[in-house]
Amino acid sequence: MDFLAPFFNHNHNVTPVPAPQINEWIKNIGTEDYCPYAIALGFACATTAIIVILAFVQLYFVVKYISDETVRSDLYWIVLMCPITTTCGLVGMFVPRAATFLNAVALAYLMLCLFVMVTLMNSLFGGRKSLAAYLTERRELIRFNVFPICCCKCLPTFRPTEANLRRIEWSVFQTPLIRISLEIMNLVVFLELKERNHWWFQASNVLGLSSMFLAFYGCYVMTPLGQECLAQYKFKTVFRLVDIAQALFSLQKFFFDFLAAIGFFEEGPILPAIGKSQFITSTMLSWEMLLISIIATYLLRPSGNSVFDKYHLQKSSNPLPQLVAAANDNKTELPPVRPPPQRESKEADSVSLSAKEGTSPFRQSKIAPYTE
């Protein structure tokens, strides 16, 4: 039997049946038509189990070795990104009727993780006010000629005031709110029409994609700020992993849904066309999230990341003799955030640049990174 036959069934005389439930999967799992689906389900179950185990390991290090409660709270969202998205996809594979709703939940969570990256950046600096003071002291500006329009040199620049930083944050935070609202309206329209072949669903996809691209752009504007201090916390690595995760999910879901809409997937005896696209998307997402989870566990391990301040304090309390000299040579210090000289300003977005000292253990951290 051709492995892809259930996915690409070109028999136009086949009458589609309702999406199977769990008891039907179990009863017919050994049949010829169900075998490819059973293999995909087994693979997705295995990868999801590994992802959940890795998430518990990551949570253990976050809880044990990070002292700042605000930073820990932000990292909880990031750590749970892979388990939640893969679990939603796995449940949608077993219960195809709920796959559309579960995919919407996973996508909204991924969009929320983008906003959490912005709040994590503020937390590492001790708050938005401290970040604005740091950027102003070093004369950094908010630049809008970033990816994907980095070639547009004519775009204006803005001062890094609290008000401007807050506006960028809201450009990112709008996408989970809009996504949730659109999915609720999609559910209402579907229950009313009993089908998805309506212009509203196409308009909903366009609005959702526009909101998503605006959030991407806001993140690309925000994350380059203060990179000199954020490098030791591997902030850019965390952002890239989150960005890749949501990009993979969004783009491949849009691609396979588009193939289903143009009739590339035929209605079959097991799943309809849209069900096949969702099934393939969830299968691919399972191993993609597993790869991202493994990479994150290795690259963001406590030994090479200063965000785990308790870990480095324990290592520096009784260091090995052969590592003392290397630790002193590689010691990195964050310059304290000092308010710049006060000057008169009548601009509407001017703010007080004085920052509270000691609001975050990371902003003034002097812990030398541990080197193996």
TrEMBL record:
<keyword id="KW-0472">Membrane</keyword>
<feature type="transmembrane region" description="Helical">
    <location>
        <begin position="199"/>
        <end position="220"/>
    </location>
</feature>
<feature type="transmembrane region" description="Helical">
    <location>
        <begin position="37"/>
        <end position="63"/>
    </location>
</feature>
<dbReference type="GO" id="GO:0016020">
    <property type="term" value="C:membrane"/>
</dbReference>
<keyword id="KW-0812">Transmembrane</keyword>
<protein>
    <recommendedName>
        <fullName>Organic solute transporter alpha-like protein</fullName>
    </recommendedName>
</protein>
<feature type="region of interest" description="Disordered">
    <location>
        <begin position="328"/>
        <end position="372"/>
    </location>
</feature>
<keyword id="KW-1133">Transmembrane helix</keyword>
<dbReference type="InterPro" id="IPR005178">
    <property type="entry name" value="Ostalpha/TMEM184C"/>
</dbReference>
<feature type="transmembrane region" description="Helical">
    <location>
        <begin position="75"/>
        <end position="95"/>
    </location>
</feature>
<dbReference type="Pfam" id="PF03619">
    <property type="entry name" value="Solute_trans_a"/>
</dbReference>
<feature type="transmembrane region" description="Helical">
    <location>
        <begin position="101"/>
        <end position="121"/>
    </location>
</feature>
